[in-house]
Amino acid sequence: MLIAVDCTIFGFDGKELKILLIKRGFEPERGNWSLMGGFVQEEESFESAAARILKELTGLEDVYMEQLHAFSETDRDPIERTISVAYFALIDIHKYEKQINANYHAEWVSLKKSPKLIFDHARIVEMARKKLRYKAAFHPILFELLPGKFTLPQLQTLYEGVYGSIIDKRNFSRKVLSTQLLIKLKDKDKEGSKRGAFYYKLNKQKYNSKFHAILNFIPNPRI
After folding, report:
1. 7, 89 in Cβ contact below 8 A?
2. What does the angle CA 56 – CA 60 – CA 64 come to, to the nearest 5 degrees?
3. Which CATH fold would you assign to the domain 148-217?
4. pTM of the prediction?
5. Can you tell me the distance from the alpha carbon of 56 to that of 54, in angstroms, rounded to the nearest whole number?
6. At what angle are helices 152-163 and 121-136 packed, to 10 degrees?
7. Which tens digit of pLDDT belongs to each residue from 8-49?
8. Contact, 110 vs 18, CB < 8 A?
9. At the fourth CATH level, which superfamily is domain 2-136?
């Protein structure tokens, strides 16, 4: 019996929620799209194996990563009984885009247009997305996908991508600002319009004292 770890890596480029995929390098399913994954070595914990595999395949390290679920169906691998301990990770695409290892043909793809994945990896991705929705309702983990400063339109686009819902722009801005969880900065992003949009950053200290305020602007997810 083999034990593997598979990682669903979410990223946000300011416009779309994406996942990082690779082309599998061996049979079965050689050359087909796969999550980041590999086998656990005898001396490794699951966490250290996930971190090692992530660095080997992508060059990424020290990213937010959390264990998701163990997939143990007897027929999930057609060659040999393999249990997969799945993780999900969150990164700011622009922060790490130069570190992505090209040796394994790693590529960011839109979560909305994900290609067919090997084995049960599509199920792993869907479970990771549901876990992300749940965690985002109570913790500021989505800010791991954003740069240090961001605009309200970027934040709204991110929440729409995670929850699969269209959010009213005025209501979203009003609800977000009413939480007082964001600090308004002086500079603007002027790429989208001449008027530009102010940048904000998360007030982490205030978040600790207003833990549930983030629930005020969570949309109803479309499952």
Report:
1. yes
2. 125
3. Arc Repressor Mutant, subunit A (1.10.10)
4. 0.86
5. 6
6. 130
7. 999 998 889 999 999 888 888 999 999 999 999 999 999 999
8. yes
9. Nucleoside Triphosphate Pyrophosphohydrolase (3.90.79.10)
